[in-house]
Design a protein that fits this description.
mainly alpha
């Protein structure tokens, strides 16, 4: 029974850590101005040619 308890706690910690990473990435994504987004997309498009 004790093993299942630890596995459950480890899974819960993994879900919380994943949520924190996603939230941080979303904040970084939203901090770009429209001009910065346009510039980045243009740069990526030019690099793919």
């Amino acid at each position: 029974m004790r093993v299942w308890k630890w596995l459950g706690l480890a899974g819960l910690a993994g879900v919380a850590a994943t949520g924190a990473v996603v939230a941080r990435q979303e904040r970084q994504r939203r901090s770009y101005t429209p001009e910065e987004v346009r510039d980045r997309l243009t740069t990526r498009h030019d690099a793919s040619r």
